């Protein structure tokens, strides 16, 4: 889970503060010391941590906290504001050229995930109504162009290449000309990387930049490299002049130091993040939403956007009525597990719902993407229609028959029934929390779940 280690530590610190009715300067100093340690352990740049703590402490010692009836909540608000500011305040979008095509060049070290991200970015803008073209300019890494072609084929996005014997600058120029002829309005150039930064790499990228009218240069960095990601960003920015950063593998980095440091050190915004291995696992980076997730306050807006992309409107209406009437059955359970599976991991989804980050502990070992999902399907499909629609009739003999039919044990069947009951509670809470959050935002009417 993204920022899991940092999030747990910060929530623990603020939990202590909220339990106190009145705070002293000593309380605030002690809390800030713990926050500082948590940030440093999360691999956040030391100078960034120092400036962040100074800014938070200065505001915390002011009247808005010391004279507040809820000082703990005020401190959380201040930390949330400063975290958001640290990561860039608002989402920085790619500037679309008024005269197509918009040309984006992805750069970075070898292994950062540029080729896969080229496809993800192309898929993202294809959903936005663009007609993307991918250009393969990595002529050095074996099978790099083939990898790009495979990615493009999966997303139904054309790839321009001239093999691995041509000069990358010539390929870029020919690719852009091809895009203009074929009416492509969004071009992504996948460039070569190295295991380290060298003059040859930078000269080649500078030549592509000067030969083609690049609108944006985006640096792709692996979030799991921590402080090295920040150092790489500094070097590329000094040598090439980047317009923004894309963080890959953010879902695998429980620390989050790179995300919290890059903007402050380079002054360049994080524009997108890779949050999974699937080609659709790419998200706009929203600093305010990310800060909210780190502090355990959820991210209702991102959840809504994912729900809008995934859930069928008519199905959502029927499900909403069933949840309200407490009539959810195993057929609904299986259907919703499949829908949730499309939205991403359960941990990630629960992290977006305010106050539900720890609900996964109550659900046991529910695995939406692996063997558990297959076992769950087998058990439910071994039930009769009557048993699926009325789980209350599942007695000992029925459970034995279902276990035999699904190749599982009675314990597995009992575990599923327990998870089903917990899921019913969770979805009831889901609707209640989301409705409250959306009423505050004035966006209830846009969410298919609650129409």
Q: Which oligomeric form is depicted? A: single chain
The tally of helices reads: 20
Judged by helices, strands and strand pairing, the structural class is alpha/beta
Low-confidence stretches: 362-366, 441-451
Please specify the SSE layout and strand pairing.
Layout: H1 4-18, H2 25-41, H3 46-60, H4 63-66, H5 71-87, E1 102-107, H6 114-127, E2 132-136, H7 144-155, E3 159-160, H8 168-182, E4 186-190, H9 199-211, E5 216-222, H10 227-240, E6 244-248, H11 257-266, E7 270-274, E8 282-284, H12 287-294, H13 300-310, H14 313-324, H15 330-343, H16 346-351, H17 371-381, H18 385-389, H19 396-406, H20 410-441
Parallel strand pairs: 1-4, 1-5, 2-3, 2-4, 5-6, 6-7
Antiparallel strand pairs: 7-8
What does this structure look like?
With about 450 residues, the chain is of the alpha/beta class. It folds into 3 domains: about 5-85, Up-down Bundle (Four Helix Bundle (Hemerythrin (Met), subunit A)); about 100-295, Rossmann fold; about 300-450, 434 Repressor (Amino-terminal Domain), CATH 1.10.260. Helix content is about 55%, strand content about 10%. The chain has 20 helices and 8 strands. It has helices spanning about 5-20, 25-40, 45-60, 65, 70-85, 115-125, 145-155, 170-180, 200-210, 225-240, 255-265, 285-295, 300-310, 315-325, 330-345, 345-350, 370-380, 385-390, 395-405, 410-440, and strands at about 100-105, 130-135, 160, 185-190, 215-220, 245-250, 270-275, 280-285. It has an 8-stranded mixed beta sheet, sandwiched between helices. Helix 1 packs antiparallel against helix 5, helix 3 runs antiparallel to helix 5 and helix 10 (about 225-240) runs parallel beside helix 11 (about 255-265).
